[in-house]
Amino acid sequence: MKILFIISILALAATGCITKSSARKQAQQAYLEGRDSVLKEQRASQTPGIKIIGAVQNSQVPWVVGLTLAQAVATANYLDPKAPKQIIITRGGESATLEPKDLLSGTAVPLEPGDVVELRP
């Protein structure tokens, strides 16, 4: 009878416990998942957005894939009641000038991370 009691206690103890190596693997997996999550957040926050210079409420617009000039200006909330007379986009140190009529005509002008858009009155 004592032997059955001891065997049943050992069986219960064995089913509820995990080994040190198993616990170590679980802890390592949790650490790696947490680290990967933090790295993804850091990369996302380091992605440069679009800077808008001019009469806008929000001078920084987050960049997303497919962002166009019209979307960026709308997101920045252009405040001047008159349309800008000139739009300058600077990318990698090189500038390009656009006419506002091109923007208003529906021409999609794609933007890249780090672009600077200047809206001149």
Distance between the termini: 96 Å
The strand count comes to 5
Q: How do the helices and strands follow one another from N- to C-terminus?
A: HHEEHEEHE
Tally of helical segments: 4
How many separate domains? 2
Percentage of helical residues?
Answer: 40-55%
Q: Could you tell me the mean pLDDT?
A: 81
CATH H-level homologous superfamily name of the largest domain: Outer membrane lipoprotein wza domain like
CATH third-level topology of the largest domain: Outer membrane lipoprotein wza fold like
Tell me what you see in this structure.
The protein has 121 residues and is of the alpha+beta class. It folds into 2 domains: 18-47; 50-120, Outer membrane lipoprotein wza fold like (Roll), CATH 3.10.560. It is 45% helix and 18% strand. The chain contains 4 helices and 5 strands. The chain has helices spanning 2-16, 20-46, 69-76, 100-104, and strands spanning 50-53, 60-61, 86-91, 94-98, 116-120. The protein has a 5-stranded mixed beta sheet. Strand 3 (86-91) and strand 4 form a beta hairpin. The radius of gyration is 29 Å and the shape is rod-shaped.
Task: List the SSEs and their pairings.
Blueprint: H1 2-16, H2 20-46, E1 50-53, E2 60-61, H3 69-76, E3 86-91, E4 94-98, H4 100-104, E5 116-120
Parallel strand pairs: 1-5
Antiparallel strand pairs: 1-2, 3-4, 3-5
Keywords:
2 domains, 5-stranded mixed beta sheet, 121 residues, 4 helices, alpha+beta, rod-shaped, Outer membrane lipoprotein wza fold like
